[in-house]
Specification:
With 313 residues, this protein is α+β, with helices and mostly antiparallel strands. The protein has eight helices and 13 strands. It has helices spanning 3-10, 59-75, 96-112, 177-187, 199-209, 226-234, 241-247, 263-273, and strands at residues 20-22, 29-31, 38-48, 80-90, 116-124, 130-140, 155-159, 191-194, 214-218, 254-258, 279-286, 290-295, 299-302. Strand 4 (80-90), helix 3 (96-112) and strand 5 (116-124) form a beta-alpha-beta unit. Helix 2 packs parallel to helix 3, helix 2 runs parallel beside helix 4 (177-187) and helix 6 crosses helix 7. The longest helix has 17 residues, at 59-75. The termini are close together. Residues 307-313 have low confidence and may be disordered. The structure holds magnesium ion (MG). Magnesium ion binds next to strand 8.
Amino acid sequence: MTEFQLIERLKPLLPANACVVVGAGDDCAVLDTGTPGAHTLFKTDAMVEGIHFTPETPPEKIGRKALARCLSDVAAMGGSPTVALVTLGLPPGFDPERVSALYRGMADLASRHSVAIAGGETTTSPERLFLSIALLGSVPAGGAVLRSGARLGDAILVTGELGGSLDGWHLDFEPRLDEGRWLAREFSPHAMIDVSDGLAGDLGHVLRASGGLGAELFKPALPVSRAAKVRARTGDLAKPAVAAALTDGEDFELLFTVASADAVRLLDAWKRRFPGVRLSCVGRVQERPGVWLRDPRSGLQPVAAGGYEHFAS
Ligand SMILES: [Mg+2]
């Protein structure tokens, strides 16, 4: 059973109440907790030794990334993070200095984004360290950008560069909070998600959530990272750079759709506002379901759904 199949099976078991504006299935839950003019965003995410990091990973980077993953999901809603709680599972005989370093990494990133860490829980874990963060955020009421709003004919855009992040920056990525808020405020994207499973996989989530639409991506427009290109030439894991950009995951860039009539104005405004961050228009939303790649030389081909899957087989 895949992770996604498991989630579909569990969703009907989740009780809701009048607070829940958007429940399971988006980057964050959207809640109405009674604050006039605002909705609350709520997110939780876990990292486990042996899956998301190794015993050799510097502990500052483990703490930093655990929080950065949650911040990236708040960015993908166009929101601002506010408060976190941390649950830490520690194997017997843990090194207290390693735990302090983990908190320093987390606290440094939290401070930079004015996020409070308001407590949490520690527990014993039989063999491996794990870290789970619950994060609250805020967004103007009705202003959260959901996965489910993509429309036929929309332009599809993505920030930054894709592929090969596991060779380097997946521990150090900057969550696109300023960019997400600016996009939500200035251009009201129809749909947005952060790229954690790979462009093809996460675009698939958006298209399915938006009523079973499809997308055509234009191969020369994909912002393939240097790391993906280098690895395609020299790495042991031979993978074409374009395939890496489509399926590697852990890029934590923002993927969103806007009305195609707004795309040029958005690209111009972006260059002025975020001159150091690439923004690429990579394709458009179409009626035929699935993700398709147009290569000017070989034509149109379907993209296998192979984003990163946590539960293989
Ligand atoms: Mg996400």
